[in-house]
Amino acid sequence: MSLSYDVFIAEPIPLNVRERVPNGDERRFSPLSITLVYGDRDAVLVDPPLTRNQADDVARWVEATGKNLTHIFATHGHGDHWFTAGLLAERFDAQVVASAGTIEQMRRNVAIRPQFWDALLPGQIPDAPATATVPDGNRIDLEGHELRIVEVGHSDTDETSVLHVPDLDLVVAGDVIYNGVHQYLVESKDGGVDAWRKAIDIVEGLRPRFIVTGHKNKDLDDDAQRAIAETRRYLDTVDELLPQHETARGFFDAMLERFPALLNPGAIWSGALALRPEKTP
Fold first, then answer.
1. Which residues have a Cβ under 8 Å from the Cβ of 274 and sit 6 or more positions away?
2. By the 8 A CB rule, do 175 and 75 touch?
């Protein structure tokens, strides 16, 4: 018995934000990567998406494989990585699992949902209580193959984790690593960037050949070394450029000039506003 994996990309969707990004772009959510790790009969879904419509698309994708979905795993507490977990778990009679730290962050995201998530996507997100449980030993068994939940601390939010699949040389990295998409920096103040680097070091120490990132340009491959290097370079550039710019707009423009090919400049604009709030023009 051998394992395989496949990735579904949920395309960017518009947000309920009237103001455009300074470069003129409409405010949109970054593309979401949903990963299916599967054997001969069974499968594990990683990071279910955000909205009902996205969940329907993912459900049809899973059903088309003919696999029996046993577990749904969330890498971290941001709602775009688990708000439809309950919906999909009911549909497939699967168990929702996460690390203990992630479950605490899930509860925090439920608490801020009315003023944040539902404000961005009114009427599009299903009811989503934090009902995940911690599997024994932070392990998921998939047809005799061990899938390991590895806790890495802060990345683009607190208490994040990744799923290590040793038999595939694969890490499903959530938002610890990005792949062709601007990184979410809103929670990166007060040492957050340095903590994020430590999380990247943990992922690199697993020695994966392949990494599926939580936000990915669908035209890019899953090469682990490239994705790790580019995520590090982005954080290094933040440390380089942020002290040079006193305004959110100045920092945003500098990052956009340095990374013109990355998707969703709205993400770096949100980060710029968080990192330079008192200087926002």
1. 185, 186, 187, 188, 189
2. yes
Do 84 and 52 meet the contact criterion of CB atoms below 8 Å apart? yes
Q: What is the pTM of this model?
A: 0.96
Whether 160 and 153 have beta carbons less than 8 Å apart is answered as yes
> pLDDT tens for residues 41-81?
999 999 999 999 999 999 999 999 999 999 999 999 999 99
Tokens of 82: 């688990």
**CATH top-level class for 4-279?**
alpha beta
- CB 163 within 8 Å of CB 144: no
- Within the chain, strands assigned E span 4-10, 32-38, 42-46, 68-73, 95-97, 139-142, 145-153, 160-165, 170-172, 210-212
Long-range contacts of 221-224 (CB under 8 A, 24+ apart): 222/7, 222/170, 222/179, 224/171
Q: How many CA atoms lie within 13 A of 279 on its CB side?
A: 15
Q: Name the maximum alpha-carbon separation found in the chain.
A: 59
Q: How many CB atoms lie within 10 A of CB 40?
A: 10
Q: Give the pairing of strands 95-97 and 210-212.
A: unpaired
Tens of pLDDT, residues 203-244:
999 999 999 999 999 999 999 999 999 999 999 999 999 999
Q: Break the chain into its structural domains and give their ranges.
A: 4-279
